[in-house]
Request: fold
Amino acid sequence: MLTARLMFLAVPMMASLGYLGASPARWSSHDTANAGFSDWSVQAADASRLKRDEHGLRLPVEVQIVPKQVRVTSAGEALDLDLDLLNTTGGQLATIVSYEVFDDLGNTIVSKVIGPKADVPGTHQAKNQSPGIPEALANGYYFAKATVAWKGPDGQGTASDSFYFRVKQRRIQTVSADDWSVESRVNQGVAQ
Reply:
């Protein structure tokens, strides 16, 4: 049941692919201005990131949540995060990203925010500042999740990444997915 609570449904993101072909008027500035995202910055991908793995495989699209800057406020620390999107295909992709933050019991901390559309040429990467981690979180374990829906000449799909962290005495501390799973309440009541 907990898995169902934490699981992202691909259907809403895939439905958002309908927006990918929308006219620019549909994506006016008021649609994303208050979402907490910056505009996408697109550049040629670093060649080292385009290598295939030991099995000769490579994902067509990769997304990574990257910690950027800690901001200290009177209510505690906040963390700015960048989203790093990599298009390893040879063709141009239309992409759209969603971002959410949950606690370790699946409660929503930052409701799903849909970011601006980005057209990313083949073998290019794009960066965008996400809404980040808010200050004033209670002590506990949390995770942020970014999901990118993409559509290109050879298909469509989704890619996602999660960023695991804990808050202790108003300070944000990064934790590995393994440590998060062991230390948090996510497995509370689950027979081992």
Remarks:
- The helical segments are 2-6, 10-15, 17-20, 177-183.
- The CA atoms of residues 43 and 125 lie 6 Å apart.
- Confidence is low (pLDDT under 50) at residues 1-34.
- Strands lie at 41-44, 61-73, 76-87, 93-103, 108-114, 118-120, 124-129, 140-152, 155-168, 171-174.
